Structures are given as structure tokens and as C-alpha cells.
Amino acid sequence: MDLRALETFRAVVECGGISRAAERLHRAQSSVTARIRQLEASLGSELFLREGRSLRLTPTGEVLFGYAGRLLDLAEEARTAVHRDRVCGRLRLGAMESVAASRLPRPLAAFHRQYPEVSVELQTATSQELIARMQAGELDASVVGDAVDGERFLSTPLYVEHLVLVGCSGCALLDKPKGLAGSTFLVFQGNGCAYRRRLERWLQSLRVVPGRMLEFGSYHAILAASAAGVGVSLVPQSVLDLYPQRDELSLREIPARIARVDTVLIRPRTAHSSLLNRLLESLQADARASAP
Length: 292
Hints:
The protein has 12 helices and 11 strands. The strands form 3 sheets. Strands 3, 4, 5, 6, 9, 10 and 11 form a 7-stranded mixed sheet that branches. A two-stranded antiparallel ribbon has the order 1-2. By secondary structure, the chain is an alpha/beta fold. Among the domains are: 1-86, Arc Repressor Mutant, subunit A, CATH 1.10.10.10; 160-261, D-Maltodextrin-Binding Protein, domain 2 (3-Layer(aba) Sandwich), CATH 3.40.190. The radius of gyration is 22 Å and the shape is elongated. The protein has helices at 3-15, 18-25, 29-43, 59-82, 97-102, 105-114, 127-135, 194-206, 219-227, 237-240, 256-259, 274-290, and strands at 48-51, 54-57, 89-95, 118-124, 141-144, 153-168, 184-188, 212-216, 233-236, 249-252, 260-268.
């Protein structure tokens, strides 16, 4: 089976269409289309259902997509093994936005210095969205704060996050949890956020009903809004440590069962990548160095 055809097939699936795949691969759209048709002809089966301008995988395409990633990763590993003095390739890493901002810059910089020919493509999303992307084969590994299917994924503990409740300086709402009833809470957008679900469970245990939930796309925006008195939020201490106007915020500790979040790196059990192992070693070394 032609590896270039598999690479083209994977790009079309990941990019969601021929035109964007052609841009990624720096090829003409006609060339990408021809590769896909050749692959379908060699397999004797259609890989995509064509619905107008959109493409959807057929059952055969879904099966092949799982194998394509493994074959291409194995080919890359073989090239690396032959040229042991040259480590190169691509890793698709997912992470929660908070982890990407507070934890990953240092180890990724160190990894890039050590392996300059390895391209790490970082995607940020909520834990649940990252797990979904892993299941779809769109990521090689992800750092998440949720439990995952142990039969499908390997999990390696990395960081322990400590969540704290924050509001504006002198915020009286933080004095008593029951006093938070009817308040505005600032949360990360989407229901797949692990920290947001912990906040909601805590409020439910207290029988506290929020007045409203305002969604934001970044923790920096959440902290700025908290400092301005818009509402209160539950954020990781590691993110708070990066905020330059901390003196404009009031903090409150919450029960340890809610505050402690173990973040783990997950990867498919069927995947065997020397590049991913090297990245994992770098992340583990940083996690050990930053542990209290």
C-alpha cells in the first residue's frame, strides 16, 4: 500500500476536505483527488461519501483511517531507526487551555531545542473534546483532567492541579459558600471542561443555585473579569500564578476533593511511537521538577 496515498487520505480526513488537505500538503487539489481515487481503486471500495462539497467517511474509510495512522507512524519510526542520528517527524498533541498556558511552554521549548526537526502541533480544547479527538484518531496524545477508557488508552500521570475560588479584591461573596447563591460564575466555554464540572458538582453539593454562568474562551479573560467584579470563578493555581494583577483578586480555598485535579497524558494502547516516548519523557521530567 502506497504510503503517500495513505498520507493524503489522512490529511483529507483531518482537514475535512480536499482543498484544505491540498493546502496542508502543498499540492494541487487535482493531485489529492487523484491519490484518493487511486487508493479507492486499489482497495476496490469507496472511502468517502460525497455530499455536495463535503466528504464523509464510509465504513471502509473509518476502518482504513485507524490503520493509516498506525502505518504512517510505524513508517516514521522506521525512518528514525535507520537514521538514529537524526530524529524527525510530527506529533499531534492536545491539551487543556490552562495546561497549555501554564505547564507546557517550558517542556515543549526544551523538547524543541533537543529535537529541532520534530514538529509538535498543539491543539487546545476541553478534556471531553480532546478525548473525542483521540477516539477519532486526530491526535497522537493529549493532556486531560478526566478519567478515560483504560482499555483503549494508556494514562501517564503528569501534573497535580490545585483549584481555587477567585473574585475581585475584597469580594464578600467568598466568605461563605452559601452566600454564592444567585451569583454570577465565570466558566470556560463548553460543557466538556473538567474544572467547570467540578464547580457545578460542588455547588450542587452545597445546594447553591448560580444566578448565571458566563462563558469565556481563555483563563486570562476569566481572571480579568473576576478582578473587575463581574463574578467569581474556579481556576487552577498554576494559571493564577501567571496572572500579573493577582493583588486585584481575592482567593478562597475549597474542599480538597474538589480542588485536586490529576492531569494525565493519554495515548492509544495500539500506538507505538519513539517520538511520543521522547516527548513523554520530557513532560515527565518537567512534572517532577515542578512538583511541590
